[in-house]
Amino acid sequence: MTDLARIRQLAANVDTTAICDADKDTRVVSPALRCRSAHPALCGPALTVRCREDFFGVVQAIEEATPGQVLVVDGGGRRTALAGELLTRAAMTRGLAGIIVDGGYRDMSYVATSTLPVYSRYVTPMAGTTNRPGVLNQPVGCGGVLVSPGDIVIADVEAATSSSPTWR
Q1: Which of 15, 20, 42, 113 has the most crowded Cβ, counting Cβ within 10 A?
Q2: 126 belongs to a structural domain
Q3: Domain of 75: which CATH number?
């Protein structure tokens, strides 16, 4: 069993409060980023993207994603939507484990019933543009914590967390 498989098994059987109790270096994302979907639990390595009021970087990241990754979007906490129904569907098709956006999300009538875990700071109907590429696979800020590509992201009804794996 791989290290990541063991972590996924652990995450399926314990909550983020127990993880934080066991590892004081676990970074906890701001509670301002809330679960917007029907299923809050996620676990996987981070695929990071930084974009501001333009969701082309999110499109790029979903196209590059491999199954099981968690898309972590540094949207600068802005209120413009960086994803919604179409990108949620695309992420599900690609097999992502979830999406966390420090910014806006839209199309809640679909997202609220989605099986893909989705977290965001805001809900807004205002979509961003698709004019500028994002910055992929670099450390990003999300919910007040630094998340690097490959960090293990675990979330549930309590919180979203990020930890650097020791096997890197």
Answers
A1: 42
A2: yes
A3: 3.50.30.40
CB 11 within 8 A of CB 43: yes
Mean pLDDT, residues 27-44 taken together: 96
User: Is 38 a domain residue?
Assistant: yes
**Rounded to the nearest 10 degrees, how much is the dihedral formed by the CA atoms of 119, 79, 87, 11?**
-10
Q: Is 45 left (phi over 0), alpha (psi -120 to 50) or beta?
A: beta
Residue 66 carries which side chain, given as an amino acid letter? T
Asked whether residue 65 is assigned to any structural domain, the reply reads: yes
Residue 168 within a domain: no
Q: Which two tokens stand for residue 126?
A: 């205002």
What was the pLDDT predicted at 92?
98
Question: CA 168, CA 164: separation in Å to the nearest integer?
Answer: 8
